[in-house]
Design goal:
The protein is mainly alpha-helical and 279 residues long. It has helices spanning 23-85, 90-100, 104-114, 119-129, 132-144, 150-156, 160-168, 177-205, 216-229, 235-252, 258-271, 273-278; strands at residues 5-10, 16-21. A two-stranded antiparallel sheet has the order 1-2. α2 (90-100) packs antiparallel against α8 and α7 runs antiparallel to α8. The chain is globular.
């Protein structure tokens, strides 16, 4: 009769129990225990490496996103306060920024939320205001190629500021491009969402009249227009935009001129692109 061997093991509670097995089975059991232990060590090491990579990427990306943090803090706070002034609390600001994440269009959406809803006009206006992202996305295809699932996240979080950083900054040595670009996208996204939410909370605490705060987006656009106007090569396209806006305002009125004006501007820029490029 073959003698049995005793193998000590630990159960789920940490108590030691003994198994009586055949000698040949002892090798198989020890091999299984070794494989399980080695797999657990590998998984733990992989998690640790992933955390270290993420931390390194965030530290590398953060200095490049500081200007975005400053800008988004002001604009996001103003957006949250304005939403609160129109009757939409901090949670609405948080959801709009987290789901829509479309910056200037979120300001425009406040007007759409507080007036009679016109789905066709809302769709066309959203398309025209955010049409630039079509070109952003196309230009990012080569840079985001081969980045797996992270590419979908980075595409969703793409905005003007993130596009500018990704196009102009080279990932530092030792930081994979995917980790660096993802860190930039996540940081910029969190800046806007957090500022919008804090603005909503601040707006709920303010008691004075906030009339005129919705002019903040118009002021921002005007400042950007003046900055471009100082460059002589941009003046022809700027004049085309002003002329199209005035013409459509006279024809369609103050309530319906924006979409036609944007279509006229687009057509003018496409038809005159050769001349504009020469300037």
């Amino acid at each position: 009769m073959t003698a049995l061997c005793t193998v000590p093991i630990l159960n789920k509670r940490g108590s030691k129990i003994y198994l009586h097995i055949l000698p040949g089975a002892r090798i198989i059991i020890w091999q299984l225990i070794y494989e399980r232990t080695f797999a657990a060590m590998q998984a733990s090491s992989s998690k640790g490496n992933a955390f270290a990579r993420a931390r390194a990427a965030l530290w590398a990306a953060f200095p490049h996103t500081l200007p975005v943090l400053m800008g988004f803090s002001c604009l996001g706070l103003a957006y949250g306060v304005l939403m609160s002034a129109k009757g939409y609390g901090a949670v609405w600001s948080l959801l709009m920024s987290a789901i829509a994440f479309c910056g200037s269009m979120q300001y425009v959406a406040i007007t759409l939320l507080t007036t009679a809803f016109d789905p066709v006009q809302a769709f066309l206006m959203s398309l025209m205001v955010n049409a630039r992202h079509l070109f952003y996305g196309l230009s990012m295809l080569p840079k985001y190629r081969g980045m797996g699932r992270a590419r979908n996240v980075m595409t969703y979080m793409l905005c003007d500021e993130t596009f500018s950083i990704v196009c102009s900054v080279t990932p530092p040595p030792g930081v994979p491009a995917k980790d660096f670009y993802l860190a930039v996208s996540v940081l910029d996204y969190l800046y806007w969402v957090a500022a919008s939410f804090l603005g909503g909370l601040l707006g709920e605490m303010l008691t004075f009249d906030l009339t005129g705060l919705d002019f903040v987006l118009t002021a921002l656009i005007f400042v950007l227009f003046l900055d471009k106007w100082e460059q002589k090569q941009n003046r022809l396209s700027a004049l085309a935009g002003v002329a199209a806006a005035i013409m459509c305002l006279l024809i369609f009125g103050a309530q319906g001129f924006i979409v036609p004006a944007m279509l006229v501007i687009l057509a003018a820029l496409l038809l005159g692109r050769n001349r504009l490029c020469r300037h």
